[in-house]
Design brief:
Number of helices: 13
Radius of gyration: 26 Å
Number of strands: 7
Strand content: 5-15%
Structural class: alpha/beta
Shape: globular
Oligomer: single chain
Length: 335
């Protein structure tokens, strides 16, 4: 019996499944609910012959991948960007055709396998994402209050807050709404403080994060964000590969005799890239350290611009943090 390859095109509700043999011929095409149990039930009849079960990276990829691995299926998570560049050449883009295309990629062996993060890294990232969402909601409500102050004037808003200006029915309703927003802001601000303490405790509990926080400009949020995004430092061949992974390298276009260098590529996790950029800004603008990295960044800022220097320092920080993680070394300000 020959080997089989299964491609999964995952949707919110249903998943299209296509199973092909070594020649690329379709053995079975079927749909199932987007749950590990339903997919395992469909693939059960081909279990002994399956060589790979592939699905693209996405919101449900980690959950389905872990379920398939737990059921002892040879699951593979494919880079969505790489798979999309192949699947878009199809004339008709349907779920069944995408599943067939993924199965053919597995059969021909021309796929790129993506790293699936551990449960601990996913939970840390979830904590940071929830904290960021809470801060954004708090910022929106405070912006709304400031706009009300501009519309009606600060003195009138203060009267509404104290209840001395709420004479009419509409004014009483507006005063109640204003007080509700301020109560919501106070509650969200209290929860934000709890999240800040939680993040600080998580960073202090991790030896890797504590080591990274000795770098000027790197705090608990940057350290935790970086650790959660990298997850396994050994998956990078060298520390220099971390910069391109987070999109912190210049975009280069070459064609024949032309060669142009643009801005950074913006690949990878934007939250980690943002955290590294903010840490670099703190290193250059707020830190008083005489470390070699800061002096190098200030020299670039003097020659070019501050933002260019901050991006360059952000890439250097990523390389340095990964190197410290791999080697287990402390921060050396002279390097």
């Amino acid at each position: 019996m020959g080997r089989l390859y299964a491609g999964l095109d995952v949707g919110d509700q249903t998943t299209s499944i296509c199973v092909v043999d070594t020649d690329g011929a379709v053995v079975e095409e079927i749909s199932a609910a987007s749950t590990p149990e339903a997919i395992v039930q469909v693939l059960r009849r081909h279990r002994r012959r399956l060589q790979h079960v592939g699905l693209e990276t996405g919101s449900k990829a980690s959950w389905l991948y872990r379920g398939l691995v737990k059921a002892k299926y040879p699951a593979v998570c494919l880079h969505a960007y790489h798979a999309h560049s192949v699947l878009k050449t199809q004339l008709n883009k349907t779920d069944a055709n995408d599943a067939h295309g993924l199965a053919l990629l597995l059969c021909r062996g021309i796929f790129r396998e993506a790293h699936v993060k551990s449960d601990a890294a996913m939970r840390q990232q979830a904590v940071l994402t929830i904290r960021q969402g809470l801060i954004m909601k708090l910022r929106d409500l405070r912006t709304m209050i400031r706009m009300m102050e501009k519309y009606f004037g600060l003195e009138i808003i203060c009267e509404y807050r104290s209840g001395t200006h709420a004479d009419g029915e509409s004014e009483a309703a507006f005063a109640t709404a204003l007080q509700s927003i301020e109560l919501a802001c106070a509650a969200l601000d209290e929860e934000r403080r709890k999240f800040d303490e939680l993040v600080r405790e998580l960073a202090e509990a991790s030896p890797v994060c504590r080591r990274m926080m000795t770098i000027p400009g790197v705090g608990p949020i940057t350290a935790l964000t970086f650790v959660a995004a990298v997850d396994d430092p050994t998956r990078f061949r060298t520390s220099r590969d971390v910069g391109p992974f987070f999109g912190l390298t210049p975009r280069v276009f070459q064609s024949g005799s032309s060669s142009r260098t643009g801005g950074i590529s913006h690949r990878g996790d934007k939250n980690t890239r943002k955290a590294l950029f903010l840490a670099a800004q703190c290193l250059l603008a707020r830190s008083k350290s005489k470390c070699r990295l800061r002096m190098w960044g200030l020299a670039i800022a003097k020659r070019k611009a501050f933002k260019i220097a901050a991006v360059a320092c952000a890439r250097k920080l990523a390389v340095l943090m990964h190197h410290m993680w791999i080697e287990g070394e402390d921060f050396d300000p002279t390097r």
